[in-house]
Amino acid sequence: MEKEYITDYITGQKVPNVGAEANRQVVERYLVEEKGFKKQDIQVAVPIRMQIRDQAYRSYVDLVIMLDGRRLMAVKCAPGSLGSREREIVSAARLLDIYQIPLALVSDGKAAILLDAASGRKIGEGMAAISSRKELLNQFREVTLEPLAGDRREREKLIFRSYDGMNVNVIR
Fold first, then answer.
1. Cβ-contact 111, 126 below 8 angstroms
2. Which residues contact 65 (CB under 8 A, 6 or more apart)?
3. How far apart are CA 61 and CA 104, in angstroms?
4. Which of its termini does the chain have fewer beta carbons within 10 Å around, N or C?
5. Record: fold of 5-164
6. Which residues, other chains included, contact 145 with Cβ-Cβ below 8 Å and sequence gap of 6+?
7. Cα separation of the two ends of the chain
8. Crossing angle of the two packed helices 86-95 and 150-164, in degrees rounded to 10
């Protein structure tokens, strides 16, 4: 059976239409057309690499919003139950950079859950809860982004790998 490909809204590249790819395309379009982000603000399929004991683990984060040179929101695009993906994207936001990315979002393109990555607390629900480009810039203009403590970082790696390993129909 031949793979079906679609054109990624942000990058313009052909990507296999598997798993949550259709959901990601809806979220990408929404962020640009409804929330005012520029395509260059949105990083697609961002590699995440970590060392867990003696093994390298590699995956990716669906989308990351970067403004003024700082990653401010990590996004997981998923079909089905969004609640089951909250912990995965919070872990990714805590691990992806040298600092904790402040916001984590899980969305299927119709519904969304916005989380404070540092605390893991839900701070909004629904697509309207997603900050606009202007709001995000204003909200984090003066905020110092803090790293995750070393001992917590090791535990967070195990959590991320556990949840990420359950993803099916993904291209790696």
1. yes
2. 31, 37, 41, 42, 43, 71, 72, 73, 75, 136
3. 11
4. N
5. tt1808, chain A (3.90.1570)
6. 70, 97, 99, 100, 101, 102
7. 19
8. 140
Query: Which CA distances in Å does 129 have to 55, 107, 123?
Result: 38, 11, 8
Residue 81 pLDDT: 78
- Please check whether residue 50 is in contact with residue 163, taking contact to mean a CB–CB distance below 8 angstroms: no
User: Mean pLDDT for each 10-residue chunk of the chain (172 residues)?
Assistant: 88 90 95 98 96 91 96 91 87 96 95 96 96 96 88 90 71 46
Tokens standing for residue 148: 């995750």
Residue 147 sits at φ, ψ, to 5 deg, of -75, 160
This model's pTM is above 0.90: yes
Is residue 49 a contact partner of residue 69, using CB atoms and an 8 Å limit? no
